[in-house]
Design goal:
This protein is mostly helical. It has one domain. It contains 6 helices and no strands. Helix 1 runs antiparallel to helix 3, helix 3 runs antiparallel to helix 4 and helix 4 packs antiparallel against helix 5. It is elongated and about 75 Å long. Bound molecules: protoporphyrin IX containing FE (2 copies). One protoporphyrin IX containing FE binds next to helix 1, helix 3, helix 4 and helix 5.
Length: 187
């Protein structure tokens, strides 16, 4: 860390970028878990089709399945409606932009001196977890974009693994920063 900047804490611009990122990532995780991971578009009751259901009912279930599959393929931000997949893409692009801007702004604005409440070991942990978080802010959305651009589910484990790695880095980040004396520097 460099020692330029306000000794009492971070600059307003850094705080704004930090909490905007937290909001965008939290919303993105919620949307991510709401997406249909296995792409299963079979409507409830489809397993009964065949001898058990009327033609009209089968047609209705097929229509529902077609609509679901059309939605699942739809990452077109400029076209028609706005669904969860598109929200996931839009939020992902926002996080990616923040992931690019933050390290640049960190270089320009500098960082405040270390909190005196952090031991040497904790400072090392803070240093590496911040690097990991900043890197993952780029890697997680990029892995999602690769997944969608290639249309190949073989990339899904990378996207899932990257966001799990993000959770690990975040847990380490919170282990040092969730104490009031440290948290105050970012409020
Ligand atoms: C910060 C950025 C992102 C985060 C935190 C994130 C998080 C997630 C999460 C939590 C899931 C569900 C995984 C699971 O249930 O284990 C998911 C799935 C997915 N994400 Fe992302 N994601 C991000 C960016 C993106 C981007 C930019 C795209 C590209 C459009 C994308 C495409 C997908 C796709 C295609 C799936 C699977 C959905 C399905 O199979 O129906 N993600 N993401
Ligand atoms: C999306 C999740 C998060 C990311 C990516 C993230 C990333 C970062 C980064 C990169 C820094 C270094 C300062 C900078 O470069 O601007 C930082 C500092 C800080 N973060 Fe987070 N953070 C996240 C969530 C949180 C949460 C949930 C809290 C507490 C509730 C928190 C508390 C802090 C504090 C207190 C500092 C200042 C530590 C110090 O005294 O140097 N962060 N964070």
């Amino acid at each position: 860390m460099t020692t330029t900047g306000d000794a009492r804490g971070y600059r307003a611009s850094q705080k704004a970028l930090h909490w905007l990122t937290v909001l965008a990532v939290a919303a993105q995780l919620a949307v991510g878990y709401l997406l249909d991971l296995d792409g299963d578009c079979d409507p409830a009751g489809e397993d009964r089709s065949g001898g058990d259901t009327s033609d009209a009912e089968e047609e209705r279930l097929d229509r529902l399945e077609d609509q679901c599959e059309a939605r699942a393929d739809d990452y077109d931000l400029l076209g028609g409606g706005f669904d969860l997949a598109e929200l996931h893409l839009a939020l992902g692009l926002t996080v990616l932009a923040l992931g690019v801007v933050r390290p640049l702004w960190r270089r320009v604005a500098g960082l405040p001196p270390w909190s005196e409440h952090l031991s040497a070991g904790q400072r090392r942990l803070v240093h590496w977890t911040e690097r990991a978080l900043l890197l993952l802010l780029v890697v997680v959305p990029l892995s999602g974009i690769v997944l969608v651009a290639t249309g190949d589910d073989a990339w899904l484990p990378l996207h899932v693994g990257a966001h799990v790695a993000f959770f690990v880095a975040l847990a380490a980040h919170l282990s040092t920063n969730l104490r009031p004396v440290v948290l105050r520097r970012m409020l």
